[in-house]
Amino acid sequence: MTRLLAAAAVVALLGTTAVASDTIRVALAENARVAEFRGVDIEVQELGGCLTCPRRAWRADGVKAVATGQGVEIDGRSAPGFRLTSGTPIRVNGREYPAVLEVIKNGDALAIVNELRLDEYLVGVLRAETGDRWPSEALRAQAIVARTYAAYHRLLNLAKPYHIIASTTHQM
After folding, report:
1. What is the enclosing helix (H) or strand (E) of 9?
2. Distance (Å, rounded) from C-alpha 88 to C-alpha 100?
């Protein structure tokens, strides 16, 4: 695993385009009707709505999001979307995700979006697609290809709520 992290570090040092930020938004699900989130001291904050109104936020160890006709509902509160943050990973459908999660309306369903640093995303891609026994040059090549692919989709989908999909549509 040390070689995988080293390859990801090399890629991070190579940098990305000047236009793009150092984060990527990955859709974990695009068409969920319901989603349950578990964690420790999750801060739930409303997205969208009135720009001058104070954003309502609260904390919980678990919440359930449901797609409604107007947007997303969590704990009886409706909004166009919600941002979930925690100091520890948040569990969605039995899997833990770091950083920030957003639940947004996507057609008649929900999209669950994980926003994370590009280098963290690359480490996850390398873990999933390679092994410790791969030669270091192969790991480096895989990291460069994964970073280039992610950076391309990030620029291509800049105006969209997410840049890339966590499925075989964009990965593997």
Report:
1. helix 2-14
2. 10
